[in-house]
Amino acid sequence: MGGLIISLLLLLEYIAPAMVANGAPVVLHGPPPIDFGKRLPDGRRVFGDGKSWGGLLAGITSGTFVGIIEWPLLGPQHIAYAALASAGAMCGDLFGSFIKRRAGLERGAEAPVLDQLGFYVFALLFLYMGGITFSIYAELIWAVIIYVLHRATNWAAYKLKLKSVPW
Ligand code: CTP
Ligand code: MG
């Protein structure tokens, strides 16, 4: 039990930057769109207007900033891991939009699981490529927590009129 709690806390230290990176663009974003309006042969946008360079920059910057705050806990190399996890989160978010556009879903349409966990899976993947691994139990438990947290925060953002849809 103690071991699991330590694994959960360790994962949190690495994934907190990714969570902040994923959430920041909702409040901090700005044009141009990452795909510059480009469409693929299917006639749909590569990513769509929901993915902007301003949001990408805000996500990576704020996620890396979390790494700076965590520095005293984990050492200066953690800033690099925070940047890596944040970049992973943003790639996962872009991947999700790419898949949604290919599936014919408009910007802002709901894609269950992909919307909530895409960024998390990619952040874990990027950290893994950077040589950081976690216990599978900790990864699964955080997947459930992040899913619920994502639903709750997006609902709050909708109520605060930061988002036009509650997902
Ligand atoms: N956002 C942004 N740039 C990013 C990611 C997000 O500008 N790289 C902003 C957009 O204003 C977006 C909002 O954050 O509308 C919420 O993000 P998300 O729910 O991921 O985008 P959606 O609008 O739902 O678009 P999609 O259907 O492509 O997921
Ligand atoms: Mg969305």
Structural class, please? mainly alpha
Low-confidence stretches: none
Number of discrete helical segments? 6
Describe the main β-sheet briefly: none
Give me the Rg, rounded: 16 Å
Mean pLDDT: 97
Bound molecules: cytidine-5'-triphosphate, magnesium ion
Structure report:
The longest helix has 26 residues, at 2-27. The chain has 6 helices and no strands. The chain has 167 residues and is an all-alpha fold. The termini are far apart. The mean pLDDT is 97. The structure holds cytidine-5'-triphosphate and magnesium ion. Cytidine-5'-triphosphate is lined by residues 25-26, 29, 48, 50-52, 54-56, 93, 96-97, 100, 107-109. Residues 25-26, 29, 48, 50-52, 54-56, 93, 96-97, 100, 107-109 line the site of cytidine-5'-triphosphate.
List the helices and strands and how they pair.
Blueprint: H1 2-27, H2 53-69, H3 71-74, H4 77-102, H5 114-129, H6 136-159
Helix pairs in contact: 1-2, 1-4, 1-5, 1-6, 2-4, 4-5
Keywords for this entry:
binds magnesium ion, 68% helix, mainly alpha, globular, 167 residues, 6 helices, binds cytidine-5'-triphosphate
What's the short story on this structure?
The chain has 167 residues and is mainly α. The chain is built from six helices and no strands. Cytidine-5'-triphosphate is lined by residues 25-26, 29, 48, 50-52, 54-56, 93, 96-97, 100, 107-109.
